[in-house]
Amino acid sequence: MNIFRLAGDMTHLMSVLVLLLKIHTIKSCAGKSYPCSLCFILLESSSGISLKTQELYALVFATRYLDIFTDFISVYNTIMKLIFLGSSFSIVWYIRRHKIVRRSYDKDQDTFRHFFLVLPCLLLALIINEKFTFKEVLWTFSLYLEAVAILPQLILLQRTRNIDNLTGQYVFLLGAYRALYILNWIYRYFTEPHYVHWITWISGLVQTLLYADFFYYYFSSLKNNVKLKLPA
Amino acid sequence: HQELPLKDEL
After folding, report:
1. Contact A161/B at CB under 8 A
2. Is A84 in contact with B10 (Cβ distance < 8 A)?
3. Which residues have C-beta within 8 Å of that of residue A52, sequence separation ≥ 6?
4. Nearest residue, CB atoms, B6 vs list A5, A12, A73
5. Which of A65, A185, A190, A205 has its CA 20 to 30 A from that of A162?
């Protein structure tokens, strides 16, 4: 474990916590007898969260952590896997099933056919992988899928007029975690002999590059202290 | 057969 990977995992954990906080805020709002002004805004405007991206991430974790019960790495590793699995599936459940949270989900805007991402990633994993076994192909599939899983969310943000802070921070943290992982891979390449994982590295690089324009607008909005806005 | 190293990253 190195500082880059720990920082990456913590950033990833933070992104999940921000999303859970946002869902909690929406839930607690509607619980009130009178909608406070913030609540009114929250409930009226769409949450800006893409269910499609959340579903893709749940699939990413489900196919990446198949070894959670067969290969024990460390307590930290197992706990983090359980957190990511539990949170991603519960977030999908909240947005799909929770009587209040699902009202803040704008399915008319979140129209990205994520099936068009799943199939190519699966085909690519069947062709390019480190070993043609069930677990290895699904693990490789999870890497390719994670690289593109943010696309429905980024497209939804372009359509969302006012991106609220929590959503912007969620996407920023999600992009930052993989950028930190790239530093971790560079560090491990120079410190560990034979540490070469081209598939992981290229997927992670593509994933981070997809955030490039978001990062640009995110930092510009911070610098100019204006509301985050993505050009359509 | 050559065993792949364990996946120690999340």
Report:
1. no
2. yes
3. A110, A112, A114, A152, A153
4. A73
5. A205
